[in-house]
Amino acid sequence: MVKIIDCDVHPYVPSVKDLYNYMDPAVVKKFEIAGLEISMGTDTVVTRNPSGGTIRKDAKSREGKPAGSYPEDVTEDYLNKYPIEATILNDLSACWMVSQSGTYLSLKLASAYNDYFIAKWLDYDERFKYAMIVSPWDPYSSVDEIKRVGKEKGIVAVQIPVTRILVGSRLLWPIYQAAYEMNLPIYFHIATNDEYHILGLKSESYFEHHVNFPAVQEVNVASLVLSGVLEKFPNIKFVFAEYGFGTMVPFLWRFDKDWRGCRIETPWVKMPPSEYVKRNIRFTTQPLPEPKNIKLLAELMMEIEDSLLFSSDYPHWDNDMPDMSLQFLPEKSRIKIFYENAKSTFRL
Fold first, then answer.
1. pLDDT one-digit tens code per residue, 264-298
2. In what order do the strands lie in the sheet with 84-89?
3. What is the pLDDT of residues 149-207, one digit of tens each?
4. Total domain count for the chain?
5. For the whole model, what pTM was predicted?
6. What is the DSSP string of 233-271?
């Protein structure tokens, strides 16, 4: 098997009490008085995975905590079983908590999560890399957070929770500028349920929530291109994790066609949209589409192979483990997707 950089692995903070050492006393008191605990907003009655949760039941865990709660377990259960050179960590509960809190608490939570993972995970195994989380609600304070921890060893990206605000919004441009100055890519992961407000959609089931991931991605890819972000920041890579890549090729066909007919409205978009996407945007492989004719999937993946990054989504229920993934591709393509693309994207 080729060397692997896994671009989507989910750790979890076992309890909000584990964050207390990294929080202001006033924030700790708020959690203590209210009896608040870490939550994940998509895990509600309506959008809860019908099998009983998103975590694989056979993934290693301890003390009744979710798999992924301790770096020792992830190392033993996953990293040491495969030729993994690095994993990009992102905590979905952090994404939810930061995006759904008021501005002050959002900023304090982002800093606490960042300090926790730097101390507890990045020092444990050098294969753990982390996409630091920032708040979308106060971009200038988030710039300060990027400057504070962006140069820490093992920080390889800036994660912004995707909300009802399109990611091309000028509200986020100061964050993009700071990431550019720190030589860090931007990382988006489906997580908050707020993303669906962009579509005017309120999911009525987990099935509906899950199958619409690509639609959220498409409107945000269009936003990055048409807002001029990719013209303004030509050297930043933007990573979309777990949205699905299968619809992206026909979407780009349509995008280029409409650009030729409507480009007078966006004169700052100087290249066909597909060229911006090829240059600036990366997509993780999980969840892999599963057509009956696997040759169709291979052809589709090879058309955008320079833009694809392998991801397992460990330890989630629908994860794609390395030994079960991409074996239908030529070795040259597998080397690119498993390793080379991520190495350049995250500057490892």
1. 999 999 999 999 999 999 999 999 999 999 999 99
2. 4-9, 84-89, 128-133, 155-159, 186-189, 238-241, 281-284, 308-309
3. 999 999 999 999 999 899 999 999 999 999 999 999 999 998 767 777 777 767 778 78
4. 1
5. 0.95
6. -TT--EEEESS-STTHHHHHHHHHHHHHHHGGG-TT--S
pLDDT above 90: percentage of residues in the chain = 79
- Report H helices in the chain: 25-34, 71-77, 92-100, 103-117, 139-149, 173-181, 206-211, 213-226, 229-232, 248-262, 273-280, 294-303, 331-335, 341-345
Please give the backbone phi and psi of residue 309, each rounded to the nearest 5 degrees, phi first. Answer: -125, 130
* Integer Cα distance of 309 and 79 in angstroms: 17
The CA distance from 52 to 217, in Å, is 26
Q: Residue 197 — φ and ψ, nearest 5°?
A: -65, -25
- Residue 323, domain CATH: 3.20.20.140
How far from chain centre, in Å, is Cα 258?
Answer: 28
Distance CA 12, CA 69 (A): 5
Structural domain for 73, as ranges? 4-345
Calpha distance 15→347 (Å, rounded):
32
What is the DSSP track for 21-37? GGS-HHHHHHHHHHT--
Mean pLDDT by 10 residues, the chain (348 residues): 95 94 94 81 55 76 85 96 97 92 95 98 97 97 98 98 94 98 96 71 78 91 98 97 95 97 95 98 95 94 96 92 93 97 97
Quote the CA–CA distance of 128 and 102 in Å, as a whole number: 30
Centre a 10 Å sphere on the Cβ of residue 154 and count the other Cβ atoms it contains: 18
How far apart (Å, rounded) are the C-alpha atoms in residues 86 and 343?
9
Orientation angle between helical segments 103-117 and 25-34, nearest 10 degrees? 100
